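The instructor's notes for this session suggest beginning with a concrete chain rather than abstract definitions. Hand out the sequence below and ask the class to guess, before any prediction is shown, which regions might be ordered.
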Amino acid sequence: MIDLIVEVLGGEEFLARDLGRAHRVFTASAEDRDRFCGLLTWPALNEILNTHRLDPPRLRLAQGGDTIPTSQYCERRTYRRMPPWDAPQPHLVAAQLQDGATLVLDAIEETHPPIRELVSGLERQLHTGVQVNAYASWTAQEGFGVHWDDHDVIVIQISGAKRWRIYGPTRPAPLYRDVVFEDTPPEQPIDEFTLQAGDVLHVPRGWWHAAAASTGQPSLHLTCGLTTHTGIDLLSWLVDELRAHEVIRADLPRLADEASQTAWCREAAKLLAERLEDPALISSYLAARDAAYGSHGGFSLPLAANEHLPADAGLQVWMTTPRAVTRDNGETVALEVAGQRWVLARQAAPLLRLLTSGRPSSLGALAQAADIPIDQAAALLDELLRAGVVAVREP
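After discussion, reveal the predicted structure:
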């Protein structure tokens, strides 16, 4: 799997110069035009559409900035033990696409392993949530018109070509929940270009843009939406952290005199100021978000249904969340993942490094890294398996 951040976007230079700041096109060389073909093929997309129940709006058709009603391309199906479903009909979907619609499939990483692997790598490097949506279109009509997103987007052109217009921002750092909503785009674009297969585009949060396929050439591209970490997010987390103080948990002195209410405000302000003056506050917030981040998948049948994980050195083990946090506490090492915490002997540190690397490791290699017997390593991994933070498979 290609390392999108390092090999395509330029690694630290992209993070420091472009991410969240400026749009930029990363053009593929002639020999790299097919470098993303393994992420999603047309047959793979067809298989996903054929075998998954993708309820709208997760699967939707859009044209000219409007979502097409499901009644125009779906058939209502009823079941005895499941909710009714508007099932997309292939011939009706194809007719809409031929007429200029764009097909959108949200969170495709949940249904397609190559894209799930891409997401895990991005989340491990960027320490933020990532959702990938797939877009397929056939005509020069725009599916969504000129719009902006409330998160940074990395666009990967898989096949075909897509024409883009970038207009820039009208409100710096807009939010999904904001006090002002900007709905008037700039009149003229600041950049126009065509993405070819293998090209990548970065569009910052709040930047107006529009895209359309090149006529007569089917276009397939992915958008990687990056979850933001704003001051609002940090302050919301900090308010939760202040629950440790009785004065914050207690009832407001709403019936007290003005002097008592002023005294409460000063005490609360002091607690908040003390935390905001902590030079490690942002790092603490980011580590807390990483430690609380959930898992991607992890079904490990039939092994997970056994009473104990077998002490088989060949078993393949991997962590199901890409954002685990490890802390070296001298004599011990802590693992914080998916809102849970384990404190282990420092001898386990090499084992945890392997486990959190993002690559599958054998049970034997994990035991060897910590210099412990296989059965002891199996017992530890069994506990992590029962907690839903690792997955296993037979060799």
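Then share the key points. The chain has three domains: 4-226, 231-290, 303-393. DSSP finds twelve helices and 19 strands in the chain.
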